[in-house]
Design brief:
Blueprint (H helix, E strand, L loop, with lengths): L3 E11 L2 E10 L4 E8 L2 E5 L4 H12 L6 E6 L5 H7 L4 E8 L2 H8 L6 H6 L3 E5 L2 H6 L6 E6 L19 H8 L2 E11 L5 H8 L4 E11 L4 E11 L1
Parallel strand pairs: 5-6, 5-8, 6-7, 8-9
Antiparallel strand pairs: 1-2, 2-3, 3-4, 9-11, 10-11
């Protein structure tokens, strides 16, 4: 018999629902799994990090230059951010998250990558609304913007995010990029032709990468999509 033990590490109400971080010991897999729930939705799991890491790897592979300033929208479990830091060209990385609890988890060292992330002098964790920041006038310009907040361009966690995935929203985001800068986006859905057309209206190059990964829960293969677009 397989016994799964759950430990609630944090629970906080938020405007989008109750946010919970828990650790689950899976005896069959022999690993501790960190999971985040928002209301009744599972947002992320440390069992599935391949596509989150590929968001950084694929996005930065398209970025030009020897010194890169990077903006990450959505901190989560930290796997996109820590993957970005593996690129030696990254000189600074700002990570924006709208939930104080998520930043607090990492500052308290609750997650597997927290210590490496917060101890790196290139990292700045910022409490803010990424989508509101993108609508505003740019302060700093970034060589790459990596976004992993919503389930997909069509399925947002909050209705206020929807405008970013329009042509006008992407043009506003592009104002925060340097010339030739890169925007990369994680999605739980298959490649979306309509969204690709929207990207093509703003960026000179765009591509949807399908990222496959083993799913030990199903015994099969699952996939996510990483969109990469360059000005």
């Amino acid at each position: 018999m397989v016994i799964a033990r759950f430990e609630e590490l944090d629970f906080q109400p938020t405007p989008m629902g109750d946010l919970m971080l828990r650790r689950r010991t899976d005896a069959q897999l022999g690993v501790d799994i960190f999971e985040v729930k928002l209301g009744e939705e599972f947002l992320m799991s440390s069992l599935f990090t391949v596509a989150e890491e590929e968001l950084a790897t694929l996005g930065l592979a398209s970025a030009e230059g020897d010194v890169l300033a990077v903006l990450v929208g959505g901190l989560g479990l930290g796997y996109t951010a820590i993957a970005a830091l593996r690129d030696p060209r990254v000189s600074s990385m700002t990570v924006i998250d709208t939930m104080p609890a998520v930043i607090d988890w990492h500052e308290r060292g609750l997650l597997p990558v927290s210590d490496a992330l917060t101890s790196d002098p290139r990292t700045s964790l910022v409490l803010d609304d990424f989508f509101a920041v993108m609508r505003g006038e740019p302060g700093e310009h970034y060589d790459a913007i990596l976004l992993d907040v919503d389930h997909s361009p069509r399925h947002q966690l909050d209705a206020s995010h929807a405008d970013l995935y329009t042509e006008s929203g992407l043009r506003a985001l592009a104002h925060h990029l340097t010339d030739g800068g890169v925007f990369a986006l994680w999605s739980d859905d298959p490649p979306d032709d309509d969204f690709m057309a929207t990207l093509s209206g703003v960026f000179s190059e765009s591509r949807a990468h399908v990222v496959d990964f083993d799913n030990p829960l199903t015994g099969g293969v699952s996939s996510n999509t990483v969109y990469v677009a360059r000005l």
